[in-house]
Amino acid sequence: MPASGDTTSGDGSLGIRLTVESQQGARADEVVAVTPVSDGHYLVRLSPGFFRGIAAGDVIAYDEAAKHAEVVARGGNVAVQVFHSGIPDETVVSLKRRAVRIGGRVDGELETLVVLTFPIEVGFPAIEAILAELPDEGVEWEYGNVFDEQGEPLSWWEDLT
Fold it and tell me: Cα(121)–Cα(78) distance, rounded to whole angstroms?
């Protein structure tokens, strides 16, 4: 049974609301695309743009009251959020092309954000190589599910290799 805050799409996936808090303490909800797998557990369909700790392919336990998710099983994907401002459109198009070329995909896009998902087999050096081609000015990127809130590696990929 879907949670009451869920929205349903035509393909059977749902959107659940997860609360995101900025470094300045502002809070907002992000709707994350999921598919129910069992009571309170969902398969993440697309890596989120702001909620940290999960990526497409992960199975999560969803706490509807807290609007929070915890990973139950890793799907083997690395989420990357690329925030940009004032860079040429062609630079963004090129980034997306290079990501797809090495085996990644574009899971979301806003005016100043691109969300990328890569299978862990692509490897961190290949991911970072395409990100290194971005301009130093006007771009910030971060891994969405590689570090914990203290900046320590989650190391989930060690269990998959």
Answer: 10
